[in-house]
Amino acid sequence: MKKLIAFMACVLILGTALCGCGGSKTYKDGTYTGKSAVFSDDEEGNGNGYGEVTITIKDNAVTSCDFKTYEENGTLKGEDYGMVDGEIKNQDYYNKAQKAIKGSEEYAKNIIGKINPDEVDSISGATYSYNQFTDAVYDALDKAAQ
């Protein structure tokens, strides 16, 4: 019986703590821009640059989102991302780079109707973009917090 009481007390304390931590924030309706930290190249040439997001919030949910990724020097990552001197010198690298761009577009679509970027699933091959996306959305949400 003592074990049951102790167990129930732990459950009650844990439940109270979790409810307190998850406090529901509210955000002002409007359009906000956020920017991720700049990620530097690793040894394989992955993860460079930063992301910028523009989100519109209405009734505590994202109603529109635009997410773009940039090289460290501010160049937009687009159709030429993964090319060298305007040419595809390594098809595998180019395909990987373009998959990251497509993933970025999906992240923007998948946050619509949500407010928490952690509810958006990461896409294989676009993990660095995911980190930039969540970082940028949190920055925008900080500006929208009431």
How would you describe this structure to a colleague?
The chain has 146 residues and is α+β, with helices and mostly antiparallel strands. It contains three helices and three strands, in the order αβββαα. Helix 2 runs parallel beside helix 3. The N terminus is likely disordered.
- Would you identify the regions where 5 or more consecutive residues have pLDDT less than 50? 1-23
Name the overall outline.
Answer: elongated
Radius of gyration, rounded? 20 Å
Strand content: 15-25%
Work out the count of structural domains.
Answer: 1
Supply the helix-strand structural class. alpha+beta
| Mean pLDDT rating | 83
- The run of helices and strands is HEEEHH
CATH architecture: Alpha-Beta Complex
Strand order of the largest sheet: 1-2-3
Percent of residues in helices: 25-40%
Number of helices, counting only DSSP H or I runs of 4 residues or more: 3
Q: End-to-end span in angstroms?
A: 46 Å
Q: Largest sheet, described in full?
A: 3 strands, antiparallel
Number of strands: 3
So what's the CATH class? Alpha Beta
